[in-house]
Specification:
It is built from 8 helices and 14 strands. The chain is of the alpha/beta class. The longest helix has 12 residues. It starts with a strand and ends with a helix. The relative contact order is 0.19.
């Protein structure tokens, strides 16, 4: 299985940075993208695809052509147009393979990526279309910064809510997901959001609405998505940077 790390996002809410890309900000003693490269090595012996844009030259210089023996392929997202567009840029290098998606500006604590992959491989023959990683979060204000999951029968995804003002439960969705390659065929059907881009939650919801089986998986004990100085400071404080 290939791994796709999306590292082309902007950092407007972080203000002026002392690094070319927010994925190179240090949290827990290492750049954010290194946390995801470590997780990638837990789930693949094959290719790692990194999607880059503006600060991409610094990411390529930092990561190089291989990481712990895994070949790295860089894909340029011509315009920063959201996660779904970035995934669409990976269609050719994925070559029809299923993939493990990660966001380069996130950190998952207490990683269960290996267990997540095992579950996907075990159930994919039973028409499982994808797994969405989540963590339990009792400070619902944090969920309002990401997205929430509403489940059917305790495991099947029924509905997702992007940045909900009042999260319906304690399930906080992450950018760590496994998808069948066919999900990329659904991209044209994903509605364009108010931000004029196609969102990850809408891609997953589109698949669910079409009858595809997507389950939730507890991927770790905690999770940090770095989109603001507040997020960065909290992650550094909690991870003893």
């Amino acid at each position: 299985m290939k791994v796709v790390i999306l590292a082309a996002g902007e950092s407007k809410r972080l203000g002026k940075l002392d690094v070319p890309s927010k994925c190179l900000l240090e949290v827990g003693g290492r750049p954010l993208i290194d946390h995801n490269l470590e997780r990638a090595c837990e789930v693949t012996d094959g290719e790692i695809i990194i999607v880059i844009n503006g600060g991409g030259y610094a990411i390529t210089a930092h990561c190089g052509q291989t990481y712990k023996g895994r070949r790295i392929t860089y894909i340029m997202q011509p315009e920063r147009n959201g996660i779904v567009n970035a995934l669409g840029c990976c269609k050719k290098p994925l070559e029809g393979e299923d993939f493990f998606m990660m966001l380069g500006d996130e950190v998952v604590v207490g990683s269960r990526h290996r267990e997540m992959l095992k579950k996907f491989l075990k159930e994919q023959k039973e028409s499982l279309f994808g797994l969405v990683g989540y963590v339990l979060e009792y400070d619902r204000a944090r969920i309002s910064k990401t997205y929430s999951l509403v489940l059917d029968r305790g495991i099947y995804i029924k509905r997702l809510e992007e940045k909900p003002q009042k999260p319906p439960n304690n399930l906080m969705g992450t950018g760590h997901c496994i998808f069948r390659s066919e999900i990329l065929e659904l991209v044209p059907q994903v509605p364009v959001s108010v931000r004029d881009e196609r969102e990850l939650v809408d891609l997953i919801q589109t698949a669910v609405n079409l009858g595809h089986s997507i389950k939730a998986f507890k991927i770790g004990t905690d999770y940090y998505n770095i989109n603001s100085q507040e997020d960065l400071e909290e992650a550094r404080r909690q991870l003893w940077n």
